[in-house]
Amino acid sequence: MSAAFTTRTLDITTGTTETVTDLTADCAEFLREHADGRDGLLNIFVPHATAGIAVLETGAGSDEDLLATLHDLLPADNRWRHRHGSPGHGRDHVLPALVPPHATLPVVSGRMALGTWQSVCLVDTNVDNVNRQVRLSFLGQ
């Protein structure tokens, strides 16, 4: 693999409750190891049909607000045509339409160019699958 492009897969255990998992430190570590002070793009991708990537503030209640909003928009009941797993699991398959399975961030001098309060997060409402993978890819010059 060329020095201009590198990738790594993270294995994340999300648990048996809906969760927002902060990946910012993992992303920063990956860039420290591979960006070598360069400019480029960091792509974060979750290859699952029931999870997404969000850039938002964490720790001040916004992560809980996001989960509450998703619960309001996508109730865990039996209205969903996609039916297997836990009751309401069909909503988990709609989640990536609202919280996409990817984000691409600018990297400047080897660091994510995030705003002051922004974090990179894995959003997972699927309580039936506790093991997730997240692929980090850096494309730099």
UniProtKB/TrEMBL annotation:
InterPro entries: UPF0047_YjbQ-like, YjbQ-like_sf. It holds the Pfam family YjbQ. Belongs to the UPF0047 family. This is YjbQ family protein.
